[in-house]
Design goal:
The protein is built from 24 helices and 26 strands. By secondary structure, the chain is α+β, with helices and mostly antiparallel strands. The chain folds into 5 domains: 1-70, Alpha-Beta Plaits, CATH 3.30.70; 80-204 and 325-384 and 648-700, no CATH class; 218-305, Calcium-transporting ATPase, cytoplasmic transduction domain A, CATH 2.70.150; 387-424 and 531-647, Rossmann fold; 425-529, Calcium-transporting ATPase, cytoplasmic domain N. It has a 7-stranded mixed β-sheet, with helices on both faces. The chain has a 6-stranded antiparallel β-sheet with strand order 6-5-7-13-8-11, with no helix packed on it. Helix 18 (534-543) runs parallel beside helix 23 (637-672).
Length: 703
């Protein structure tokens, strides 16, 4: 019986990537099908029960793709994506219906009279009533929910205007009246749905970071029973179980090492660049990657009590705090909705008292609602957001959240993670040229026998130079120490300085040692290379009046040296995930508005808690999901550009509100005076909406 394996693929970006992934997986024995979802950056694999997810991860990594196993049971389609499709369908219906009714209305405005006019009005009613009953449901539902809760929102005047326009138009058509607002009701619905769809499209990109974190938990583990390792679901693990963590696998539980010795990569959890040695009695946390040797771990925390799950809970809490942000549109709605209702009611009462004609009074009240209905306000924010998003996308920055630009315009402090954000995240050998040709040859041969990040850096340096490996005998890796072998009967070693026989001189934070069989070991020095435009980015942010801080899980010497190089005065080292989250919360309690930029699991809580956040495109899925924006390339320059564009966008949004206000100041007296015919209403709505959209497009320029 086939099962499904879900893998996260953070680095895929095009159709060629999809083809390579699907072809590679389809060719693997036991795989029946593989389907890539580029939007979610995932692949669903149907495979035989004996196919292990770890094998598929290794296969894809050999093809050049980063891959992580996800737990299928915790992944669900977000409601924002479903809502976006629903809105698009309703938008299409409203657009099609409004075009047809507008054609009939043009004939009426051109002079059609009597029976011809009545026929066109009845045909318009036949089109408008079912179209609006379907398309305007989001407004009706939201308005009804608000009224039941005893409050007003923007959908209340919208719904009232649509219903009153249809009711008065039907009444006028029944009485052979001259004016009907079927076209206005449909056009109003179409414009407002367009604004809602633009907003929903932005929200659809923002998946739950807490969901992603939970899905990264290992779905299966190897439990040791009577000396034999048996694969079981993680949900079946209990406190005290002995769990085998194989090399290349992630720990499924928090626990203490019983047997084995290995190096553990904690970078995604702590930000620390170097692996740490774990042996009997040492603590291992869920989510840590075992690199070199098998470990048997006694479970001390399982399921929801693990450190990884607690981090997911922190992210969920932080996300809920950000969701309480009130956008400019929502703030405008609080003032706008009651004002529109009062104005329409006063117009109705005034005309009823003056004329005594209920029909005329209702028509004028409907005209006031239609004229004042917030087409311009409904487009003010989405139009600007879409224009600004397009400009920043061209610069290499993807905006995922509808209110991200508004929040970004308010920031006064930028907080960076170091490893993988300001740096490349991969060790770089700095003194390769100091080695002799013989030492380089031995170093490459020893590095080939290890998956350690420093060994990978040595192998890369040798590959770029074209250095061939020496012929070694008895090559083996000693977990927690390094690799060793024999060359012409002499022992050779590459690994920890104290194991090779060298003392750490403390000159650099990251070192290894090589004994090429001469008895005189040489120190190999590494650094996590900064990105090429770090200095320019920090200078650009500072020039815009922003404070720059650095929070890193790395050791103090490394962080201090990096901060000093780039003139960052406010820096903190050895920061755990909860430390970063608490630091962000503390700064924001002091009234600071924080832009957080990070890439790892250890940053997700801080990313979700910050006023606004950005992650690199190569960040882990959970970090990208927790962020409001994602850098698409390796450059940091779009960050400073984004702050500038966000400030421009907020300025344009406020200008759009001013345009909407001026429009109402001019149009409302016409409606109250009874001069707002359907033609005038259509022209007024279209003019205001087009003006707002054109003003929004100015964000795409330089000013």
């Amino acid at each position: 019986m086939a099962g499904q394996i879900m893998l996260s693929l953070p680095t895929i970006h095009c159709q060629a990537c999809i083809a390579r992934v699907e072809d590679a997986l389809a060719a693997y024995p036991g795989v029946t099908s593989a389907r890539v979802n580029l939007t979610l950056k995932r692949v669903a694999v149907d495979a035989a029960p004996d196919v292990a997810a770890a094998d598929l991860v290794g296969l894809l990594e050999r093809q050049g793709f980063e891959a992580h196993e996800l737990d299928v049971s915790v992944l669900t389609e977000t409601t924002t994506r479903t809502a976006g499709r629903d809105l698009l369908m309703r938008l299409a219906v409203a657009g099609f219906a409004s075009m047809n009714v507008m054609l009939l209305s043009v004939a009426v405005w051109s002079g059609a009279a009597d029976a011809t006019r009545d026929l066109f009005h009845w045909i318009s009613a036949a089109i408008a009533l079912p179209a609006i009953a379907f398309s305007a449901q989001p407004f009706f539902r939201n308005a009804w929910a608000a009224l039941r809760a005893g409050r007003l929102n923007m959908d209340v005047p919208i719904s009232l205007a649509i219903v009153l326009a249809l009711a008065t138009s039907l009444w006028e058509t029944w009485l052979s009246g001259h004016h009907a607002y079927f076209d206005a009701a449909l056009t109003l619905t179409f414009f407002l749905l367009a604004g809602r769809w633009l907003d929903a499209r932005a929200r659809a990109a923002a998946r739950s970071a807490a969901e992603e974190l939970t899905a990264l938990e290992v779905p299966r583990a190897w439990r040791v029973e009577a000396g034999t390792a048996v694969e079981v679901p993680v949900a079946d693990l209990r406190l005290g179980d002995a769990v085998l963590v194989k090399p290349g696998a992630r720990a499924a539980v928090d626990g203490v090492v019983m047997n084995g010795r290995s190096e553990v990569d904690r970078a995604l959890l702590t930000g620390e660049t170097l692996p740490e040695v774990r042996g009997p009695g040492d603590v291992v946390a869920a989510g840590e990657l075992n690199l070199t040797g098998p470990l048997t771990v006694r479970a001390k925390a399982v399921g929801q009590d693990t450190s990884l799950h607690r981090m997911a809970a922190l992210v969920a809490v932080a996300e809920s705090g950000r969701s309480r942000y009130t956008s400019l549109a929502d703030r405008a709605a609080k003032l706008y909705a009651p004002g529109v209702h009062i104005l329409s009611a006063l117009a109705f009462l005034g005309w009823l008292i003056w004329s005594g004609d209920l029909r005329v009074s209702l028509n004028i009240a409907a005209a006031v609602l239609i004229i004042t209905c917030p087409c311009a306000l409904g487009l003010a924010v989405p139009a600007v957001t879409t224009a600004a998003s397009g400009r920043l996308f061209g610069k290499g920055l993807l905006i995922k959240n509808a209110t991200a630009l508004e929040r970004l315009a308010e920031v006064d402090t930028v907080v960076f993670d170091k490893t993988g954000t300001l740096t490349t995240g991969a060790p770089e050998l700095t003194n390769w040229d100091d080695l002799t040709a013989a030492q380089k040859s031995v170093a490459r041969a020893l590095a080939a026998g290890s998956a350690h990040p420093l060994s990978a850096a040595i192998a890369e340096a040798a590959r770029q130079e074209g250095c061939s490996p020496a012929l070694l005998d008895a090559l083996r890796e000693k977990p927690g120490f390094g690799t060793e072998g024999e060359m012409a009967g002499r022992p050779v070693r590459l690994g920890r300085p104290d194991w090779v026989g060298v003392e750490d001189d403390g000159q650099t934070d990251t070192i290894a040692a090589l004994d090429a069989g001469t008895g005189s070991p040489i120190v190999l020095r590494f650094r996590d290379a900064p990105r090429s435009d770090v200095a320019e980015t920090i200078a650009a942010l500072t020039a815009q009046g922003l404070n720059v801080s650095l929070l890193s899980g790395d050791r103090e010497t490394s962080v201090a040296q990096f901060a000093g190089t780039f003139g960052i005065d406010d820096w903190h080292a050895g920061m755990r995930p909860e430390d970063k989250l608490n630091m962000i919360a503390k700064l924001q309690e002091q009234g600071r508005r924080i832009l957080m930029i990070g890439d790892g699991l250890n940053d997700t809580g801080a990313l979700a808690a910050a006023h606004v956040s950005i992650s690199p495109g190569k960040a882990l899925d959970a970090a990208r999901a927790a962020s409001d924006m994602v850098l698409l390339g390796a450059e940091l320059a779009p960050i400073a550009e984004a702050v500038s564009v966000a400030r421009q966008a907020t300025k344009r949004i406020r200008e759009n509100f001013q345009i909407a206000t001026i429009y109402n100041v001019v149009a409302v007296p016409l409606a109250v005076a009874g001069l707002a015919t359907p033609l005038i209403a259509a022209l007024a709505m279209s003019t205001s909406s087009i003006s707002v959209s054109l003003n929004a497009l100015r964000v795409r320029g330089r000013g």
